[in-house]
Write a structure and sequence with these properties.
It is built from 11 helices and 12 strands. With 283 residues, it is an alpha/beta fold. The protein folds into 2 domains: 122 residues, Aldehyde Oxidoreductase, domain 3 (Alpha-Beta Complex), CATH 3.90.1170; 145 residues, TIM Barrel. The strands form 3 sheets. The protein has a 6-stranded parallel β-sheet with strand order 6-11-10-9-8-7. It has a 4-stranded antiparallel β-sheet with strand order 3-5-1-12, with helices on one face. A two-stranded antiparallel sheet has the order 2-4. The chain is elongated, with a radius of gyration of 24 Å.
Length: 283
């Protein structure tokens, strides 16, 4: 995930936090003062963002050297050290909060995703995210979802056709919206249609939708809709699904459950950066 976009996000974050410099650290520490530090977990979590955190330190000062002790996607126990840093003290402390913000946010999403993935273990259902992401951070947050063991829905409006209720209202009918999209979309693009009622499920099937999104239905309604679809399209369930009810929706015939909470409601993981005692000179 160390792309030019990631570097741009890091630079924006550093400008926001340290654009005027770190007046405290620069006042206390001479440029020659060096320290060692670790980033460690304060809870059990799924790791994500160690390379991004290391990149933050490098962007602040290439003299800061980092050592990654775990890989993204790994399970870490409370107290486990994820990253070691060594170099100029003032630079290290200038980078501290920005580095932690990235790794805490991404590890929080990965940890949340792992919970959801494990909740449907043993079923044929995939849990996928949505576009309900932090503006500008979509690629990183969707990467965190994958690190947690879930999957990605479309990353942008241009990836495939998804006809939602407002499209249907403005077009005049579900069938007309599908027909217009089939004329304009690339030949390989799937056409997905949101359906809120059994009548719309039937209409989507007749219109030839490749994916039917069952929106805000109860488990009983989902069972009825799956019977109507009868394998003619991929079935996605979305809306109103909580972690506590996830297994109720992981029904035979359901292929995908999309959940915005993977990203928009994931709490940041608890990690900290701690300086280590200075090494004593050997005689």
């Amino acid at each position: 995930m160390l792309t030019p976009r990631t570097d741009h996000l890091i630079d924006l974050a550093l400008e926001e936090d340290a654009g005027l410099g770190d007046v405290t650290s620069r006042a206390i520490f001479a440029p020659t003062h060096r320290s060692r530090a670790i980033i460690d977990a304060k809870q059990d979590l799924i790791v994500c963002g160690v390379e991004v955190a290391a990149r933050v330190f490098w962007r602040v000062d290439p003299a800061l050297k980092t050592k990654l002790l775990v890989r993204d996607g790994a399970r870490a126990k409370s107290g486990q050290v994820l990253l070691q840093i060594e170099g100029p003290t003032a630079s290290l402390l200038t980078a501290e909060r920005t580095a932690l913000n990235f790794i805490q946010r991404l590890s929080g999403i990965a940890t949340q995703a792992r919970r959801y993935a494990e909740a449907v273990k043993g079923t044929a259902v995939r849990i996928v995210d949505t576009r309900k992401t932090t503006p500008g951070y979509r690629a990183l947050e969707k990467y965190a979802v994958r690190c947690g063991g879930c999957f990605n829905h479309r990353s942008s409006l241009g990836e495939h056709v998804l006809i939602k209720d407002n499209h249907i209202t403005a077009a005049g009918s579900l069938t007309k919206a599908v027909q217009l999209c089939r004329l304009a979309a690339p030949h390989a693009a799937k056409i997905e249609v949101e359906a809120k009622t059994m009548a719309e499920v039937r209409e989507a099937c007749r219109a030839g939708a490749g994916v039917i999104l069952l929106d805000n239905m109860t488990p009983a309604q989902v069972r009825a809709a799956v019977t109507i679809v009868a394998g003619c399209a991929i079935v996605e369930v979305s809306g109103g699904v909580r972690y506590e009810t996830l297994r109720d929706y992981a029904l035979p015939g359901v292929d995908v459950i999309s959940i915005g909470a993977l990203t928009h409601s994931a709490p940041s993981a608890d990690l900290s950066l701690d300086l280590l005692p200075a090494r004593r000179n050997r005689r």
